[in-house]
Design brief:
The complex is a heterodimer of chains A (663) and B (632). With 663 residues, chain A is of the alpha+beta class. Chain A contains eleven helices and 36 strands. Chain A starts with a helix and ends with a strand. Chain B is of the alpha+beta class and 632 residues long. Chain B has ten helices and 39 strands. The chains are: A alpha+beta (663), B alpha+beta (632). At the A-B interface, β6, β7, β16, α10 and α11 of A face β6, β7, α6, α9 and α10 of B.
Chain lengths: 663, 632
């Protein structure tokens, strides 16, 4: 009984919406509305957005992907006027072109309580040729003022069956109703995947279809209309309603990971009288599809081009460990990344090798092939970079980057030779994104976790003396390990000393630096070191006969990075880390310690974070040993409030002061 | 100010003939590699005005890129449009020894649309050489030729093509028919060793051995100190229209006749509508304010740059119908509406942007990149930014302030300097009470009143979502530990150009307790001016582009059982760059704290930089001064 009621209710609501969500039905009430009911700050809102994509047979072109998108947008304030402009990129190579048309495009305003309707003419429509392959249709709706409603239909005809729109239910403004319908004949099976925290309602139905096939080579009256093809057509309808706007936060890997979305990808082609072609059903199939591509398999297996160079390396090193490192460093220094990503080669490994430049696939294929040739068990790992989003479901489209995994015993070593500062197990931050898909030599696949498990350390050793004028003089040495070393090398190592001194003097404000030096040992297991001497004036408050100063001298977490009151998405620290500070301060003659901060240990939920602050005094020496550990790279938002408080306490402790008194 | 050593002519003595180009950088003198990410071994710019309707622009350079930074700064883009065609584009990469390793033909360049974010359509395109250097240093020879029918623009030869880049040799030749009225203007050439040749139809320059200029904190705009030569012709052509201008008056008339005329007409309905809005108002400024508000409420900015559209506004009647337009279109539209209510106004061309750049007055030619409107009223000009829907009437923001612009009056063009925002215009006054609680928390009721640039920065606060308002104050009160905003309200006064923020803030752990002492930083709300970096060997003057005036008046109220055992002393600093004052007076319930900081706009000699830094260093200290409270 319950189910029936629910069913009826759903049916009922649907029928109401069915009436409302059509273009051309703008009401006075809608135009009078001056703010969004659930989000009064919103500058505009999507009242509805309905997409309809379908694959249809066309006698001239065969199967085509047709898409219509109907949109109705309410503009509340001047900030919302930009939503009356729209850009639609489309594929327009010389051989294959998509066609985009705009229709039913009107702006509605309320003028003296009457609805005024303005049509979008050709003078508000533009096409820009972006590059050899891509163009963009742009429209600027006319006569748009605060309070207006704009509506239009975008129709796209595409010969590319894999260009089904990635349907974002969620936008940066609220969306009242979003619907996407996708209809496909049984010959084409698509996978669909959801992203984000909100999941749409889905309805699936099928119907039987028949198309008449025409032989294109027959002209005149003799059309072969007797040939029919019967098939089942599947329609999927996704609906999501009252969707809040999506706002970015700090420490988020990629906000689009949380955007409510449905994505379709062609998985199986199953034409009558031919064997089904599997593209994307499981990660294995994804890998196989990619693997079978000429610019993957063939390119990966080429090896003649590097033989001489490899021979030379192998003659110099005998153990696998040494050879691995030597080959990695050879490719890393020889090859230059041309800033293109992708899982396929572009000009091919041989050309890339000859030119010393290549895309990420070319460079890491060369590395894989050379390692394999040296009998090292190396395999490519396909990755989706941070900007591309998290690959939650089997999909070819999300994979856009290649690294290499080497298996030695129970160890897995990750390598990326496309960057000059990487080292074994240190890959660029953009590639640290959940799981990668490893493709073995026998074409089997497996998943590989990319988030680093072991912490990257940094150690500060600081020795200084405080004089009676409140000036510190001392030396500091900081060692950076693993990812910290990588990031230091990427950002600072190549800069002239002067820029680094400026950076530090800016960071610590009241400090003057001399004898600045950085060291990056050839041996990548050794840390990168930055050291300098300093004079620090202004870190001490001298009040009456007392001196006050924070013995951390500006190091560590001096203010809470989490100040915003609410958090919706996970906090991403990228990799676990350990910061350690050993600080010793010699006190000036004639002063004694009146009070020292207390030694403390703070541990956050399940040991995700911990902080130790130890301080001791012997004669005129204050010694401080502080460590701050982030033991887990990603922290769920449910911990946010406690974490904010934890960081607040850490910041408080870090800035707590020693009080000295004149004897 | 800027002195470059006149170097002994190097052993290289490169010839300017293309076939003799030396592609190796080995042996460059040290002063050309110091601070340099790249060195232009040879650069030549040749501009030939074949006629009033054809100018050929040939640029060829050989540059050694010492590192990635040098390459990133290098411009390998060639801009073109339907009327400016690229007739040649080629490049060669050389290795350290000067051996050619790779050649690029025109077809190897990538073709892009040059549309930026704010433009919906433009016929401007880019040919770009997309290369990945495989080693450094390497040398690139870049050579292109463009041909244009547009001769109306001012062009410039910049021998120093980028920052942190030295020049071994650069030359420039411009050839022109004698009767085109060639004009040129030299900028900042005095301190360089430059050869110049001039004749009736040719002008040539050569410069050699220019060390790299290092970017320095707060340096004035490059344009104000790097050498350049600008040039133009008086008999010119623009997109199908000929023109001639020997003075600004003529140029203004030409712009008026050929670019503005014919776009003015508005439908009668709109004209009568605007007359109804203005009603019986007779004061011209009040009428103008009503018209300006009408434009702001009824249009949006969209840039459409096609053909002569780069210079000619779209029809006012189209703006009226579509309710959008670019700067030219909206300016022209506003002007026509003002005309309908008998308020005169002048279309004005400007170089826009927060970095001030005035028209080069020595050269009568098309300049500028933006249009806005001037309203003359009792010997004064009121400036209207027609693309901004929120700017108050007559308020000039930092987009067009304090620079020479071309005003098109009915009598022709005139160069006028726009209003400057002086430091006292950019004020911020924080007034309020701060109540201290014995537990260490504080409760503050504040009114922050701001004007000038501060108004532009803050007028949008009232429109932000509460989360973004929170973000703003977290940044603004950067001297407070975690705090809560109990109340916040905004008032914008568009006539007085003033915004008021009314706030109540609560902060739980503001006061530190140490032993028996309670430590209170008196300045709770106005911190965060960073101390300028220490500089060891400054070469350039420094500029405060816009000053400001901050004043704070805070009554601090303490609990009855506490008293002050220590108070910081009063301070008064007076410098060339600004003034800073602190005064603290005991009151019945606590203290009254007053702070003021004024920073004066201007360009200052490099010798004064240390003094300037010291000024801020002292401010940072006094801003951090603490008072100590103890129990009675």
């Amino acid at each position: 009984m319950k189910t029936i009621c629910l069913y009826l209710f759903v049916f009922f609501t649907f029928s109401i919406f069915a009436q409302k969500q059509e273009l051309g039905k703008v009401t006075v009430d809608e135009l009078k509305q001056n703010s969004h009911p659930s989000d009064p700050d919103a500058p505009a809102a999507i009242l509805f957005e309905k997409g309809n994509s379908r694959i249809e047979y066309n006698h001239t072109h065969g199967f085509m992907l047709l898409t219509d998108i109907d949109v109705k947008i309410k503009i509340y304030s001047k900030d919302g006027l930009a939503f009356a402009n729209k850009k639609i990129p489309f594929y327009a190579a010389s051989s294959t072109k998509e066609v985009v048309t705009i229709s039913k495009a009107f702006t509605y305003n309320l003028v003296n309580d009457k609805i005024e309707k303005t049509k979008l003419n050709n003078d508000g429509q533009f096409v820009d040729v972006l590059s050899e392959y891509w163009s963009e249709k742009r429209i600027a709706m006319p006569n748009v003022r605060e309070g207006a409603i704009v509506e239009y239909r975008i129709s796209i005809v595409s010969p590319l069956l894999d260009r089904v729109p990635e349907w974002s239910f969620q936008k940066n403004i609220p969306v009242d109703y979003s619907e996407f319908i996708f209809t496909t004949p049984g010959f084409y099976n698509y996978n669909f995947l959801y992203k984000g925290y909100l999941t749409p309602e889905v309805d699936t139905y099928t119907s039987n279809k028949r198309i008449g096939l025409v032989n294109n080579h027959t002209y005149g009256s003799q059309i072969q209309s007797k040939q029919y093809l019967d098939f089942t057509e599947t329609t999927k309808k996704y609906i999501l309603q009252n969707i809040p706007s999506l706002n970015d936060e700090s420490f988020v890997s990629n906000i689009d990971n949380y955007r409510a979305q449905v994505v379709h990808e062609l998985a199986v082609i199953n034409m009558p009288n031919s064997l089904p072609k599997y593209l994307t059903t499981t990660w294995d199939e994804v890998a196989k599809t990619i693997y079978d591509n000429e610019s993957f398999k063939t390119e990966l297996n080429r090896e003649v081009y590097f033989e001489d160079d490899l021979k030379e390396i192998l003659s110099k090193y005998s153990t696998n460990t040494d050879r691995l490192l030597a080959i990695f460093q050879f490719v890393q220094s020889k090859m230059n990344w041309n800033e293109y990503v992708g899982v396929f080669t572009d000009k091919g490994v041989r050309r890339a090798y000859k030119d010393n430049t290549g895309n990420v696939a070319e460079i890491n294929f060369i590395l894989t092939a050379m390692l394999r040739k040296a009998n090292i068990n190396a395999n490519p790992v396909l990755i989706s970079t941070r900007s591309k989003g998290i690959p939650l479901f089997p999909s070819r489209k999300v994979l856009n980057y290649v690294i290499v995994a080497v298996h030695a015993g129970d160890q897995t070593i990750l390598l990326d030779a496309s960057n000059k500062n990487t080292s074994p197990n240190i890959i660029p931050v953009k590639a640290i994104n959940w799981n990668g898909l490893i493709v073995y030599k026998n074409e089997n696949t497996g998943t590989l976790e990319l988030t680093p498990k072991t912490p990257s350390n940094s150690v500060v050793n600081l020795m200084c003396a405080l004089d009676e004028n409140g000036i510190f003089t001392g030396k500091q040495r900081e060692q950076f390990f693993d990812y910290n070393a990588f990031i230091f090398k990427e950002n600072y190592l190549k800069l002239v000393d002067e820029s680094n001194i400026n950076r530090l003097e800016k960071k610590f404000q009241d400090i003057e630096i001399t004898e600045y030096k950085t060291t990056a040992p050839e041996d990548v297991s050794k840390p990168v070191v930055e050291e300098y001497a300093f004079i620090k004036d202004g870190a001490v408050e001298q009040i009456g006969n007392k001196m006050y100063f924070a013995p951390m001298l500006g190091h560590g977490i001096t203010s809470n990075p989490f100040k915003i009151s609410k958090r919706e998405y996970p906090i991403d620290f990228v990799y676990p880390r350990q910061e350690k500070y050993n600080i010793s301060i010699t006190l000036p003659e004639g002063y004694e310690v009146e009070s020292l901060p207390e030694s403390t240990k703070l541990i956050f939920e399940e040991g995700i974070l911990d902080y130790t602050y130890q301080v001791s005094q012997r004669n005129n020496l204050i010694q401080l040993s502080v460590s701050f550990n982030i033991n887990q790279a990603v922290v769920l938002p449910k911990y946010y409030d406690q974490m904010k408080e934890f960081f607040e306490n850490v910041a408080k402790k870090t800035t707590e002061k020693v009080v000295l008194k004149k004897i | 100010m800027m002195k470059f050593f006149i170097c002994v002519f190097s052993v290289f003595s490169l010839s300017i003939h293309a076939q003799d180009l030396n592609k190796s950088y080995i042996g460059l003198p040290k002063d050309l590699t110091e601070n340099a990410n790249s060195c232009f071994l040879e650069s030549s710019l040749k501009v030939v005005y074949e006629s009033r309707r054809k100018v050929v622009y040939e640029h060829k350079y050989v540059v050694t890129l010492f590192n990635k930074k040098g390459f990133e700064n290098l411009n390998t883009q060639i801009y073109y449009t339907k009327s400016t065609k690229v007739t040649k584009a080629q490049a060669v990469m050389y290795d350290q020894l000067g051996k050619a390793v790779k050649k690029f033909k025109k077809g190897d360049f990538k073709d892009y649309s040059a549309v930026d974010g704010g433009t919906i359509i433009s016929d401007a395109r880019i040919l770009n050489l997309d290369i990945t250097p495989t080693f450094y240093p390497f040398t690139l020879e870049f050579h292109y030729v463009t041909e244009s029918i547009n001769t109306a623009f001012m062009r410039t030869w910049n021998p120093i093509e980028m920052t942190h880049s030295s020049v071994l040799k650069s030359n420039f030749v411009v050839e022109f028919p004698e009767d085109l009225g060639f004009q040129y203007a030299e900028n900042n050439l005095e301190s360089y060793d430059i050869k110049k040749e001039i004749s009736a139809n040719r002008l040539a320059y050569e410069i050699a051995n220019v060390p790299a200029i290092k970017h320095e904190y707060m340096q004035p705009s490059y344009r104000s100190f790097i050498p350049s030569v600008s040039f133009a012709v008086s008999k010119f052509h623009l997109e199908g229209v000929d023109g001639e201008a020997n003075n600004w008056q003529d140029l203004g008339k030409w712009i008026d006749t050929h670019l503005l005329k014919g776009t003015e007409e508005l439908p009668e309905q709109t004209l009568s509508h605007i007359r109804t809005i203005v009603g019986n108002e007779t004061d011209p400024l009040k009428k103008a304010a009503l018209v300006y508000k009408f434009v702001q409420d009824n249009t949006r900015y969209i840039s459409v740059q096609l053909g002569i559209g780069g210079w000619k506004p779209m029809l006012a009647s189209d703006v009226d119908r579509l309710k959008y337009g670019d700067c030219k279109a909206l300016t022209n539209y506003t002007q026509q509406l003002l005309k309908a209510v008998d308020v005169p106004s002048y279309y004005t061309v400007v170089y826009s942007g927060s970095q001030k750049r005035g028209f080069d007055q020595n050269l009568v030619a098309l300049q500028g990149d933006h249009a806005f409107l001037a309203i003359p009223h009792q010997e004064e000009m009121y400036w209207l930014e027609c693309t901004n829907q929120e700017s108050p009437f007559g308020f000039i923001g930092d987009f067009t302030d304090d620079r020479e612009v071309l005003v098109i009056t009915p009598e022709g063009g005139r160069i006028i300097k726009t209003t400057a925002l002086k430091h006292a215009d950019n004020y911020q006054h924080i007034q309020g009470t701060l109540k201290v609680d014995a537990s260490g928390s504080i409760l503050a009721d504040l009114v922050i009143s701001s004007g000038g640039r501060n108004f532009s920065n803050k007028q949008r606060l009232e429109k932000l979502a509460s989360k973004d308002i929170e973000k703003h104050y977290l940044k603004f009160f950067n001297g407070l530990p975690t705090f809560k905003i109990n109340q916040v309200a905004f008032e914008n006064d568009f006539e007085k150009i003033n915004t008021k923020e009314n706030l109540q803030i609560e902060c739980n752990s503001y006061i530190e307790k140490m032993g028996n002492d309670y430590i209170l930083r008196i300045n709770a709300f106005n911190l965060g001016y960073t101390v300028p970096p220490r500089m060891r060997d400054r070469k350039l003057p420094f500029e405060i582009t816009r000053g400001f005036l901050d004043t704070d008046t805070i009554e601090i109220v303490i609990p009855e059982d506490l008293e002050f055992s220590f108070l910081p002393e009063d301070v008064s600093l007076v410098t060339d760059f600004g003034t800073y004052e602190i005064s603290i007076r005991q009151t019945e319930k606590g203290i009254s704290y007053q702070r003021s900081l004024a920073l004066f706009e201007g360009i200052y000699e490099k010798e004064k930089y240390d003094q300037f830094r010291n000024f801020f260093d002292q401010i940072a200290r006094y801003d951090n001064a603490k008072a100590i409270l103890k129990e009675k």
